[in-house]
Amino acid sequence: MRKPLIAGNWKMFKSLDEAGSFAEDFVPRVSDVTDRDILICPPVVYIQALAQACEGSPVMIGAQNVFWEDQGAYTGEISAGMLKSCGADYTLIGHSERRQYFGETDETVNKRLLAALRGGLIPIVCVGETLEEREAGKTFDVVDTQLRGGLAGIGAAEADTIVIAYEPVWAIGTGKTATPQMAQEVHAWIRTVLTGLFGAAAASEMRILYGGSVKGETIDALMAQSDIDGALVGGASLDAASFERILRFKG
Ligand code: PEP
Fold first, then answer.
1. Spatial distance between the Cα atoms of 177 and 186, rounded to a whole number of angstroms
2. pTM (predicted TM-score)
3. Looking at 18, 167, 217, 244, which residue is catalytic?
4. Which of 22, 56, 152, 230 could serve as 209's disulfide partner, Cβ 3.0–4.6 Å?
C-alpha cells in the first residue's frame, strides 16, 4: 500500500522568524500522525533550522530544487549531499515555476533527479500541462513527454522511491482546482505510463501527488480517488491550521 504524502511548498515566502513560529505551532498539532507522511519544503536557507525544530516529530523537510553536480565551481548552486547534510530528506524537481521562469527542461529535470537519488534525497518530480495545452487536447502528450524525459535512465529498482506530482499549471496559485475526476483521469494514466517504464510492481508502489490550489475544502474528495496518493500544497501550506486540516484528510 502507498503511504499518503502531504507536502507543503513554501516557495519564496516567510522570514526565518516566521518559519520558526510556524514550526512551534505546527509540530505539536501533528505529533500524533503516523499513517501519512508530512513534508515541508521551505526556502533553502531555512532547511537546517526547520529540520532541527521538527526533529523527533513526524514532519520531514525537503528542498525546492537541487543542482545536478555533487560539488565544484558552480557559484550559487546547492548539491543533494549539502541538502541532505542540513536535514533535507526530499527535494522538489521541475516545479512549473522553475520550468516557466528559470528555463528548466526535461533534460535538466533528469539531471537533477539522478543527482538527488545519488545524494540520498527522495525526488518529487513535477509534471503538468498549461491551460493552452489542456484546451488543445494535449494534456496526455505533454505529461507523457515530461515523464519520459524526466525519468530517463531510471531502472525499476530505483523507481519506487520516486514521487510524481501532477500539477496542472492552470490550477497553481489560481484558486482553480481540477475536479477529483479530472485529476484521477490523469493520475491513472500516469500510472499506466509508469507501468510501461518500470513494470507493474514498481508503478504500483510509486506515489502520485496532486497539486494545484488544494485546500481543506477540496482535499477529501481528491484523496478519495484511487490513484491520488497525496498532495503538493502551495499557498495553503503557509498557515499551520490550514495545512493541518489538509493533512487530516478523510478518504
Ligand atoms: C505548488 O506550489 O506546487 C502549488 C500547487 O501551489 P498552490 O497550492 O498555491 O496552487
1. 14
2. 0.97
3. 167
4. 230
